[in-house]
Amino acid sequence: MGTVVIFGATGLLGSSLCPYLADSGFEVIQAGRDPSSNRILDVTDSSAIADLFRATAPSYVINLVAATDVDRCESDVKYAYLANTKVPGAIAAAMDTCGHFDIHAVHISTDQVYAGPGTHSEGNINPINVYGLSKYAGELLVAAKTTAILRTNFYGRSKLPNRKSFSDWLVTALKKREAITLFEDVLFSALNIQTLCDLVLDVMKQRVTGTFNVGCANGISKAEFAIQLASRLGLSTENAKVGRLADLALKAKRPTDMTLDVRKFESAMNLRCPDIFDQISLTAEEYSDE
Ligand SMILES: NC(=O)c1ccc[n+]([C@@H]2O[C@H](COP(=O)([O-])OP(=O)(O)OC[C@H]3O[C@@H](n4cnc5c(N)ncnc54)[C@H](OP(=O)(O)O)[C@@H]3O)[C@@H](O)[C@H]2O)c1
Fold this sequence. Notes:
Layout: E1 3-7, H1 14-23, E2 27-32, E3 39-40, H2 46-56, E4 60-63, H3 70-75, H4 77-97, E5 104-110, H5 130-142, E6 147-152, E7 154-155, H6 166-175, E8 180-183, E9 187-188, E10 191-192, H7 193-206, E11 210-213, E12 220-221, H8 222-233, E13 240-243, H9 263-269, H10 276-287
Parallel strand pairs: 1-2, 1-4, 2-3, 4-5, 5-6, 6-11, 7-10, 8-13
Antiparallel strand pairs: 9-12
């Protein structure tokens, strides 16, 4: 299947995507600052990245590097800029330098480039926090390359002990019968991580380029998502109250409607995006043996 260099492999998505692609027959090279990386390098340094490309001649590159602490991004703009903007810029510059390798890149972005009422099509950009703005700025730097920019969101069982997904947090809280608030005013159309891995592989195989929303064909509130997941797992929601994000004073503003219009992706890939209720069932299966 060829060689794929993955930046940000040590994160939530990378820890699922790397073994998945290795099992699919790729030679996976994990590049980053973490000692567990196959290649340790400064991912903001385009010359170091170009050297890596020359040494490994990848057919594919995937960028998962991100500063994902949305509240920290708001007060520490350098943290947001380095990971969300400078890194994609460095990867794009290295791809230019090594243009003769014909590298196809997948750059993962976020549904937080949108705000206001959904469903959002790709042109409806309106980031309302530093995280979303820095991610969008990163997109602009890779947009002209042979790159697929996938705006997405995901949940599912994490393979990392120290990095929890939304569903990990939810299932743990429900099992411990903790008092939690489920937001009825936050809408999303996020995917299960495994489904996202399948779709990333499809994008690589078809070498699709452009900017795409990648999510479910329909959306749901986070409160309804939680109730549906709890019901499939036989967990009580008696200690969970339904509330509104709008009533919280968070450091960073959050978009409340992140539902994605996925028709451009469906058309480019010639597929149907999944139904959110099927994704919840798939996610429940991941936690059923806990
Ligand atoms: N998690 C979500 O719910 C979610 C939702 C929507 C979109 N996304 C997008 O999906 C992608 C993957 O997210 P994720 O949740 O897997 O992220 P994550 O768990 O926070 O992992 C981030 C990765 O980026 C690396 N990284 C961060 N800053 C770095 C820096 N300055 N220099 C070098 N490496 C750096 C980390 O490396 P270290 O291990 O060395 O720190 C780690 O490998 C991102 O593009 C994110 O914006 C995520």
